[in-house]
Amino acid sequence: MNHKTMIRISKRLSRHLRHAPAEIGIRLSPDGWTDVDALIAALGITREQLDHVVATNDKRRFAFDETGTRIRASQGHTVPVELDLPVATPPDTLYHGTVAKFLDAIMAEGLRPMSRHDVHLSPDVPTAVRVGSRRGKPVVLAVDAGRMHADGHVFRLSANGVWLTGHVPAGYLRST
Ligand code: HQG
What we know:
This is Probable RNA 2'-phosphotransferase. The protein is α+β, with helices and mostly antiparallel strands.
């Protein structure tokens, strides 16, 4: 399978496992899983293609359950799902990659989840730079996650290493 085909399948998986399952006639369980056989039939791909995309995805966006019969996106949903991710203690500092045009709003109201369920935070600067670069020249904010945690904010860690929290008040943000 060539690289272009893999990217195309990955984008379709993101779309339907996070945002628009009904568009291809699949259903997600309350915790985000869908049946692998139904998914490959709906997408017109083979199990081998799916396995390859899941295994080689640059951000490990998708995960099979322990039986290999169900698959879900590890984060990033806009449809209502409860992933039941483990609550975790974050490192002292996490990072958020964004762009300059959002900074005034972010410094006024903090980081908000926007259309997703949670604010997505990165464990290191290079990852945050990549996230911000999706929208233009990246600006990286440092998040005082240790203090947030001490103040009672809940953090969860997705299966692919993205830190999730509901809201980051501006007082925990500083520029890098
Ligand atoms: C910004 C991708 C105005 C925020 C990435 C961001 C990540 C505000 C945008 C994952 C704001 C939301 C998530 C406020 C936040 N006012 N703008 N108060 N608070 N923003 O895409 O973090 O490829 O929903 O800075 O790599 O960019 O999908 O979040 O620019 O891991 O797997 O509003 O998505 O991963 O954008 O990216 P997003 P994000 P995948």
